[in-house]
Amino acid sequence: MKAANEGARSGYRCNRGAFLSFKLKKAQGMRAFKGISLPHSRSIFFILLLLSLEWQAGAQDWVRTGTNLGAARIRLAAADFNPSSGDPQTPALKTTFDTTLYSDLNNAGIFDMVSKSMAPPVTPASPQQMNLAAWAAAPANAAMVAFGSFAVNGGQIAVYGWLFDAKNPESPQILGKQYNEAASQDNARLIAHRFADEIITRLGGGIPGIAETHIYFVAARGGNKEIWQMDYDGQGQHAVTHLGTISLSPRVSPSNDRIAFASLGKQGWSIRMFSLVLGRPVSFNSPVGNTLSPAWSSDGAKLAFSAARNGDPEIFTSDASGGNLKQITTFKGPDVSPTWNPKTNAQIAWCSGRTGLPQIYMMDSDGTSVQRLTDGGYATSPSWSPNGQFVAFAWNRKYGPGAPGGQDIYIMDIASKRWTQLTHDEGRQDFPSWSPDGRHIVFQREKGGASEIWTMLSDGTEQHRLTQGGNSMPNWSWK
Amino acid sequence: MRTLHHRHFASLIAVATLTLAAGCHKKAVPPPPPPPPAATSPAPTATITVTPDTITPGGGAVLAWKTSDATDISIDGVGTVNAYGTQNVQPTESTTYHLVARGPGGSTDATARLTVNAAAPPQSTGETMDEQMFEQNVKPAFFDYDSYDIRPDAQTILAQDASFLASHPTLKVVVGGYCDDRGSAEYNLALGENRANAAKQALVNGGIAPDRIRTVSYGKEKQFCSQANEQCWQLNRRAGFSLDR
To answer: CB distance B190–A313 less than 8 Å?
Structure first.
């Protein structure tokens, strides 16, 4: 297992094959060096050279991988929209709309965005005003252009948006959309998210965009830990629960209508349920004994969680109301953090300390066919990718005395058990959670004593922070 | 425990010396200049919290404090204390705990407010047992890293805990499982549950009825000590006991 993984590190879905071939070359170089005697000074130089190469190789354990990120990026321009009303609210709302649209398309992970400084300084309001040749030419070199008009009339935002193919002037229109909402900053963002998702769905292989999704998380901003919600881009952060205790591990249901989470009460930890529709807690029949880390099956019919009904934490499943309770593990020691394979709901991965330090395991959802996935270190917090192919998790591989390894986010291909490290040298990461398009992972990063929510593409690139003020345990909504 | 006592005496002596020294300071300012405080001494830092911050009369709360770069630490109403620690308190009226930390680099203070809610009538229990007496007799068991095995030292402590509980048959206890702040929060909650349950089993083996013992895991959510060193981590890896009222 170990040897296979060592190989996997350099070979698996490696878009930059250079690293693998470099390693081979280095080994050959070593052998050649042993066989040939060189003049003294040159051999010292050669050793220094080898040492420096060795150092570089050690530091360059970077491999590109990810889901739904494989195709060449489309060169896309997003024009500032044309302000087609004199309402005094127009400029501020339009700025929010333009910024959000550009940011959504830039965040999508599938576009090579034309920088606004490279774009023609025009704001075409309609197809009639569109001069495609100007956008297709250098320096913009756009393959696609999003543009349109933005108006505020009688307290309503009216947006017309188009997506044109700059390389097909005969029949350029790919999309034409119209949006009307009450005039507010939130709605200016919402319309931008909707239009961005239309573009991303159309150009991204039919996989819906994630600009309208939400992230749930734990915020420790008032002394207690409460469940909070924000847009996928960190906007609109607000508290969902006000329970005045410690609430952890939020998991939103696949239909986005309720959040399951673990909360500390008089009798210890229990799973609680909050209805996002009703805006209040609703009943859930949490088992007796400390109960933690809920996880929804992708059909919303079942939950898996850790419950210490007889003193030892084990993985259980139940229906969505807590009935039909089934114990599916019997391992002495901690068993916690289950995650369903959302493609089939036939498998569950989880974290178990049955052999000492926690490792990631998977099993069929009835508790049979247990397999260990990680081969050592300290591995926690698995999250199964939407397409069923990968499990993301937190791993400190070099755990042990004298080996101050980092706790980083990794993803493992379940079929081959090959893994890839996504974060490097940036503090302590935990609790990865996949976006519904599989192109993004949100996670918790502790750095300099503060824990915050970060997001990245699922190949580890384009990391950026979404929160400040002490936040943890993010969970990305299903749609 | 012995080392703690030693430290206690040591800090008492340090306090006495400092108090004297401080007294001299004020008077002897002009002619013989006292040795100036070392310019490199960092200013002390101090934090104090009380959990929960609201109780009903008869209820208890836990004071937890932490200081750095201080040689003389005292809490009003509690007295001189170590650089970090916890103490159970059971005031009958709302109290503000004022911590003053003095060191070579200056002094600082911190406060924590405990509100005693007068609304609920005091509960009378069959046996009067104050938190302090309970804490003195029912001591926490400490654990190795990522382990919930009862160590020999913990076994001794738990046997003493069990004999105290056996001689006070009306007492009910809550066993809290705690972990140090390394590692993952969810996993530590499960590990803390295993620790609390291991301590409960030791008490049951010592003859205490299981229905007198409740367990709850605090994982890494409640820390007794928050420095990143083994001494502090060890203080946090425990099964601790409190009265189940």
So the answer is: yes
